Amino acid sequence: MKREFHAPEKKLRVGVLGATGMVGQRFLTILEQHPWFEVTALAASPRSAGKTYEEAVGDRWKLDIPMPERYKKMVIHNVNEVEQVAREVDFVFSAVDMTKEEIRAIEDAYAKHETPVVSNNSAHRWTPDVPMVIPEVNPEHFEIIAAQRKRLGTERGFVAVKPNCSIQSYAPVFAAWKEFEPYEAIVTTYQAISGAGKNFKDWPEMVGNIIPYIGGEEEKSEKEPLRIYGHIEGDHIEPATEPKISSQCIRVPVLNGHTAAVFVKFRKKPTKEQLLEKLAAFSGLPQEMKLPSAPQQFIRYMEEENRPQVALDVNYEGGMGISIGRLREDTIYDWKFVGLSHNTLRGAAGGAVECAEALTALGYIAAK
């Protein structure tokens, strides 16, 4: 059944909470020329409030592309002045750097001011009625927003989140292979330093180094896919029970791009041809609705033995696509493969922007 599609009649006004940080910076570069959204408010910590964006960021611009001119003279709001920011926007993206309790409080405050929040943060990922969505995989979870609005007492306000950046290079693959019933997986992710909000200038000790620990990351890598594969039960999202995932997460000296080495067992034994066919055919709501950020080919398979590589492949489909390679039979598990995704585009700001596009297309976000 074809879904009803609503493109906005005019650009929606959007605010970026946590605009001075690395993910906030990425949001601004993505939104600079966006056909649906226009940034009308920047918000950050009280120490940045009242300064121009250029003054507040100073020498902390972390991206390898220059700061867009249009934001340099915009004056930053105090993120805690919710009512003032909410007046200037139709919805907000959240990339604030606070404790989880503070993040939940500030995101709920914006939602209760009838301002939808699309968050890059992890604080609300396990709130039972907050949808955590990869739009190609589980857009039906947006339907839980009705229950969330009832709890919050809002008509248009809500919070929606995107999942952790490290799962993007394998969670959609398991979704593409769902009919073969993957039930157990071993995943090791090799994660770029921008996932910690840093570049090599900030973190020189990462040059030529590997750190075999990223706080909280392994639990996210094991549990978040199950929530994405889950289903709505009444007023909450019930996580799936499979595939059971065991994960290790390692920080490597790469600026952008998370790589995953994955081993998987299936109840129904697929051939390599069947697995590749499912990857090539896999698409979802963003492709159906031709959302502005949607990759045309969401998952591509690369036949070369030495691909995907960060240096060559991380920007596939503008950083919004996923590259898979080295699919082969395993001696203990059934199959193994290597995945690659861009952690600050598909995995962070870009994934949140695609969520906002889907929410707009489905009528959850509209002009005030």
Automatic annotation (TrEMBL):
Sequence ranges assigned to domain Semialdehyde dehydrogenase NAD-binding in this UniProt record: 13-145
InterPro entries: ASADH-related (IPR051823), Asp-semialdehyde_DH_CS (IPR000319), Asp_semi-ald_DH_pep-lack (IPR005676), NAD(P)-bd_dom_sf (IPR036291), Semialdehyde_DH_NAD-bd (IPR000534), Semialdhyde_DH_dimer_dom (IPR012280)
CDD domains: ASADH_C_arch_fung_like, ScASADH_like_N
EC number(s) reported in the record: 1.2.1.11
Cited SMART domains: Semialdhyde_dh
Keyword Oxidoreductase assigned: yes
Gene3D superfamilies: Dihydrodipicolinate Reductase, domain 2, NAD(P)-binding Rossmann-like Domain
GO biological process: methionine biosynthetic process; threonine biosynthetic process
Top-level class of the enzyme under EC nomenclature: oxidoreductase
MF term (GO), any: aspartate-semialdehyde dehydrogenase activity
Active-site residue list: C165, H258
Keywords: Amino-acid biosynthesis, Methionine biosynthesis, NADP, Oxidoreductase, Threonine biosynthesis
Pathway participation: Amino-acid biosynthesis; L-threonine biosynthesis; L-threonine from L-aspartate: step 2/5; Amino-acid biosynthesis; L-methionine biosynthesis via de novo pathway; L-homoserine from L-aspartate: step 2/3
UniProt key word Iron: no
Alphabetized NCBIfam families for the sequence: asd_EA, PRK08664.1
Family the entry assigns: Belongs to the aspartate-semialdehyde dehydrogenase family.
Protein name, entry field: aspartate-semialdehyde dehydrogenase
Source organism (scientific name): Stomatobaculum longum
Lineage: Bacteria, Bacillati, Bacillota, Clostridia, Lachnospirales
